[in-house]
Design a protein that fits this description.
With 412 residues, the chain is α/β, with parallel strands linked by helices. It folds into 2 domains: 173 residues, Flavin prenyltransferase-like (Rossmann fold, 3-Layer(aba) Sandwich); 207 residues, CoaB-like (Rossmann fold, 3-Layer(aba) Sandwich). Helices cover 34% and strands 24% of the residues. It is built from 13 helices and 19 strands. The chain has an 8-stranded mixed β-sheet, sandwiched between helices. A hairpin with a 5-residue loop joins strand 9 and strand 10. Helix 4 packs across helix 7. The radius of gyration is 24 Å and the shape is globular. The protein starts with 5 loop residues before the first strand and ends with a helix. The structure holds cytidine-5'-triphosphate.
């Protein structure tokens, strides 16, 4: 895209409208040209001046402003992506049935680009058969209607219907701009386990052996799987900085042993297990009960290490028929072979169905937002994954998994 991607941010009339401001900020800061189109009800929650100041564009709700510019058609036609944040039950109903009674609903009818709704409403409204039918109808037309999160709602209520975290919305928006077909509902009914983050192996109550994994790749995998319809459990080790993906059950762990217990517990019922976590291969053989003190003679303690179990190898041994296992490998090329050579060997040795091979070193893969590598399958497929957002890599992995799930179903 030569020019700045043009995003229309529709804002519905719900209390979560204030979070649309954060989405707007996230998108403009990452170089997107954002036009905000609120409903009249949205402006009861957030003033037009806020949207105008943050977007740098005038804000209208009706089709009778700037009539010579034919806004009710133009705004939709010129967009590269339309987002609706928050999508109320009312807006979903209008969009499903083609009602066009203000600028936003007109824009939804004229848009030819990807359209994504991010719902927020009370649980009763989200679960109402009318809303379920409207969501199903929109999805059957290829419109993205994301899963809301569970948690605190307006007032004292908690339940499903909370707006996804604004950072997650920005990430999914960027994914759809890069690949409009990244979020099909092709994992519905598939039970997925993803491990993410880096384990910490305690030395004493304050020190640990750790690694540089941020958990971003595992979170992107969980997020994209959930939005493709999968039932996802995320086993997360030290990922506090990341927003929990909407609609995903998160189990927090710390050490490799805890990660092993948590993953094995949920893997029993899973159709797919993705081991994206950086699991420590070694742990201090002993954990000191008290903080290890410096000695007067300037000597330093010797730390003995013990081997941790290979969790993925255990999963491969106990795998259920039809269960798919996905491993990650972080490699550098050396005198024994290239990154790809090492990956091929590891794919065979690990016995997994899919191996995501990352080239690491020189600032690549760890703690950054982008990733690149290869996707290797046990059937011999080798797909180069171009440098892109971790969500894009996640979408490539789920494309391959969905294909294998479909092939498995055909065989049954
Ligand atoms: N893994 C695991 N348990 C461990 C270590 C790693 O389940 N104790 C998983 C990782 O989550 C990843 C895959 O195994 O999916 C590959 O990890 P990696 O450390 O690259 O492979 P190793 O088999 O440890 O090989 P190496 O000798 O290169 O370290």
């Amino acid at each position: 895209m030569g020019t700045r991607p043009r995003v229309v941010l529709g804002v519905g009339g719900g209390i979560a409208a204030y979070k649309a401001c954060e989405v707007l900020r996230g998108l403009t800061e990452s170089g997107h040209d954002v036009r905000v189109v609120p409903t009249a009800a949205a402006l009861k929650f957030v003033g037009a001046a806020t949207f105008e100041a943050l977007s740098g564009h005038p804000v209208h709700t009706d089709v009778f402003t700037a009539v010579p510019e034919v806004q009710h058609v133009r705004v939709g036609q010129e967009a590269d992506l339309v987002l609706v944040v928050p999508a109320t039950a009312d807006l979903l109903a209008k969009a499903a049935h083609g009602v066009a009674d203000d600028l936003l609903t007109n824009t939804l009818l004229t848009a030819r680009c990807p359209v994504a709704f991010f719902p927020a409403m009370h649980t009763e409204m989200w679960e109402h058969p009318a809303t379920r039918d409207n969501v199903a109808l929109l999805r059957s037309r290829g419109v993205v209607v994301t899963e809301p999160d569970s948690g605190r709602l307006t007032g004292k209520d908690t339940g499903k219907g909370r707006l996804a975290d604004p950072r997650e919305i920005v990430d999914l928006a960027r994914l759809l701009l890069a690949r409009s077909d990244a979020l099909p509902r092709d994992l519905e009914g598939v039970r997925v386990v993803v491990s993410a983050g880096g384990t910490r192996e305690p030395l004493d109550p304050v020190r640990f052996l750790g690694n540089r994994s941020s958990g971003k790749q595992g979170y992107a995998l969980a997020r994209v799987a959930a939005q493709r319809g999968a039932e996802v459990t995320l086993v997360a080790a030290h990922t506090a900085a990341l927003p929990a993906p909407a609609g995903v059950r998160v189990v927090s762990v710390s050490t490799a042993a805890e990660l092993q217990t948590a993953v094995e517990d949920v893997a029993v019922d899973a159709d797919v297990v993705v081991m994206a976590a950086a699991v420590a291969d070694f742990r201090p053989a002993e954990r000191a009960e008290h903080k290890i003190k410096k000695q007067d003679d300037d000597s330093a303690p010797t730390v003995l290490l013990a081997r941790n179990p290979d969790i993925l190898a255990g999963l491969v041994q106990r795998r259920r028929p039809g269960q798919l296992l996905v491993g990650f490998a972080a490699e550098t090329g050396d005198e024994h072979g290239s990154v790809l050579d090492h990956g091929r060997v590891k794919l065979k040795r690990k016995g997994v169905d899919l191996l995501v091979l990352n080239a690491v070193g020189e600032g690549r893969a760890f703690e950054v937002d982008e990733n690149t590598g290869w996707l290797l399958t046990s059937s011999g497929l080798e797909q180069r994954i171009p440098l892109g957002a971790k969500s894009e890599l996640a979408a490539t992995v789920w494309d391959a998994v969905a294909e294998l799930v479909r092939a498995g179903e055909r065989r049954q």
